[in-house]
Amino acid sequence: MSVEKLDALAQQIAGPFAFCGLAACCRGKRDFAIAHQSFLDVDRFRMFRVASISKIVIGQTLAQLCTKHRVAWDSDVSSVLGWPLCNPEFPDIPISIGALAAHTAGLDDQKGYLLPPDQTLQAFFTSNRFGARPSGTYFDYANLGYLVLAEVIEKLSGTDLPQACSHMIPDDGGFNWIGVPDTRRADALPTFRHDGDGFAAQIDDPAVMPPPAVSVGRFSPQGGLRLSLDGMLTLAEALRDADKTVLWRDAQTAGNDLGGVFEQYGAGLQIFQNPAFYPRPLIGHFGNAYGFKGGVWYDAKADLAFAYALNGLELGDEDDSFSETERKIFASFAMMGDE
User: Fold this and answer.
1) Tell me: the pLDDT tens digits for 129-186?
2) Is the pTM of this model over 0.70?
3) Which of 188, 182, 102, 171 is nearest to 137 (CA)?
4) Contact status, residue 191 vs residue 204, Cβ threshold 8 Å
5) CATH number of the domain at 1-339, please?
6) pLDDT at residue 211, rounded to an integer
7) In DSSP terms, which residues pair with 305 in a beta bridge?
């Protein structure tokens, strides 16, 4: 696909959104296309919150540290945390690091996953955050698991989360703006919701540094990474060398795949061998929060890395399934890989 066709696609898609960004690197050639509403001034370097795409950085940093320190995926996470973590309904079944990474630990986001800045993770778990299933028996996507893994990263690395993950974060990005230069933070792109005839900023208008805190909740590791479109593509390119260990398969363990959003899951990666929305195997991660919807993906067969960012979803749209617009984006990038 030529850059002209990429531009045309962005313009075609952008209508209902505040901002649409598309990026691709095919066999070493990087291309970008951006379309936006007239009230915005956007280029590929403006940063915004990328939601659950953050899990790539957490999962891959964790995989590297586990390899370095010879910690197995089936290790009891309590042995690393230094305090006991278990489902009170199944106290004799350990919670493994791999189960947390693969969303099979039995955690229930409906019981809360926003960790207060003045509360430790251990104190947070004095309330039951688990569902009714034992660890390892069911896939249920849970943000809370990646808060636990952020603390595991800090324990294994001996440093704070931003420093431990810094080699994985491109483009001066950072979790909740921590580590992002002042000039880049001042140029933040808010995330919008479309409400009636206009767009209302939901977050990062302006970009605010979080207050000092005692827990990893300060960083919002489950979804608080800020990147630009350029940084998203850099992260997609890095997936060539990602740890692709499969920790959950829908064919082996039951689960809620959200209508085909999940087929396999690894260290912060959605892994597709036969996706319904794309003609070849694919790895990466989607994001959906505060009116943002996007993805960072890598197609190894075509050596194609790509990313997309849609900003300004309708108020109340919380559907995690791939939208018609996203499927159109996937189909267009698939053709780029065919060329």
Assistant:
1) 999 999 999 999 999 999 999 999 999 999 999 999 999 999 889 999 999 999 999 9
2) yes
3) 102
4) yes
5) 3.40.710.10
6) 82
7) 25, 298
- Three-class HEC string of the chain: CCHHHHHHHHHHHHCCCCEEEEEEEECCEEEEEEEECCCCCCCCCCEEECHHHHHHHHHHHHHHHHHHCCCCCCCECHHHHCCCCCCCCCCCCCCEHHHHHCCCCCECHHHCCCCCCCCCHHHHCCCCCECCCCCCCCECCCCHHHHHHHHHHHHHHCCCHHHHHHHHCCCCCEECCCCCCHHHHHCCCCEEEEECCEEEEEECCCCCCCCCCCCHHHHCCCCCEEEEHHHHHHHHHHHHHCCCCCCEECCCCCECCCCCCCCEECCCCEEECCCCCCCCCEEEEEEEECCEEEEEEEECCCCEEEEEEEECEECCCCCCCCCHHHHHHHHHHHHHHHC
Kindly tell me if the per-residue pLDDT of 1 is higher than 70: no
Domain boundaries, the chain: 1-339
